[in-house]
Design goal:
Length: about 240
């Protein structure tokens, strides 16, 4: 499997605080059948602070990747970033202050949870106009998707790809997010499932439960597509 959304890099956001926890997260990934992880730390520093933030992300990324290599852990680490959509997004893209997913033209983006549909669409257009492909993180958690099932299809028609969180079909983010996630799965609107892991103790990188759920509730083919093949096609 490929886990497309993790906060595994140590000490750069509200995810793993240190190298020890990052390595525990790596081990949990491997234990559950994951062989590749995209590290997607939060991006939320204003203006020029983002340049220093990216420098720290890259430094910590290389530190973790080297430690994984030294310990001979069978896990590949790809670079990415979860970009929080703000009014200065155009400027960030123009100045190269965002990191794509594994060097591709795909960008993982996150909206404010209460953002209205027009604002979300505006951010999607910003990525598209910058020549990127928007990968929309956990759409099931946004109020506008929970209220209007048709909004997800609008985002897809615009060119967005949807990534739900592994815990959402189990109610980890509440009843409304669970309902929205299942609805999108039923409609075939989901391209990726990621852990959005922040810790080896809660919201972890362990992916076995969601793999089993997808196989049992949908099909083994669906599980392979959402947990590996689509990610390999888009980011590999």
């Amino acid at each position: 499997m490929i886990d497309v959304h993790t906060h595994i890099i140590p000490g750069v956001d509200d995810g793993s605080p240190d190298l020890e926890d990052s390595l525990l997260m790596a081990e949990l990934s491997i234990e559950s059948g994951v062989d590749t992880v995209i590290a997607t730390p939060h991006s939320h520093e204003p203006g020029e602070g983002q340049r220093e933030h990216i420098r720290r992300i890259k430094q910590s990324f290389e530190l973790l990747r080297e430690e994984i290599r030294k310990r001979k852990l069978p896990l590949t680490l790809w670079q990415g970033m979860e970009i929080y959509c703000t009014s200065d997004m155009e400027e960030l893209f123009e100045n190269g202050l965002v990191l794509p997913m594994n060097g591709t033209d795909h960008y993982l983006i996150e909206f404010p949870f209460e953002a209205g549909p027009e604002r979300c669409r505006r951010h999607i257009r910003t990525v598209l106009e910058a020549g990127g492909v928007p990968v929309i993180a956990h759409p099931e958690r946004y109020t506008c998707i929970q209220k209007d099932p048709k909004e997800a299809e609008r985002w897809i028609r615009m060119g967005g790809l949807l990534q739900i969180n592994k815990g959402s079909p189990f109610g980890s983010y509440g009843r409304r997010a669970r309902k929205a996630a299942v609805r999108m799965l039923d409609a075939g609107q989901v391209t990726f499932v990621g852990s959005d892991a922040h810790s080896p103790y809660f919201r972890t990188t362990h992916m076995e439960e969601i793999q089993r759920f997808l196989e049992e509730e949908y099909s083994e083919r669906t599980a392979r597509l959402l947990l590996e093949e689509n990610a390999r096609q888009h980011f590999g």
